[in-house]
Amino acid sequence: MTIRLNNNSVITFISDSIRKYGYQPEDIIGKSVFDMVHPEDKEKTAKRIA
Fold this sequence. Notes:
Elements: E1 3-5, E2 11-14, H1 25-28, H2 42-49
Antiparallel strand pairs: 1-2
């Protein structure tokens, strides 16, 4: 799966393979990646993005 984020960690692109998880790309694009991450994993995610 390919995901692209802007400088504010907002999802600007997500590949169609997200559909196999029950999501539509247009429902994900425009959301903060942190809206999709479990609260316990947000710090780890921020480090990986940086």
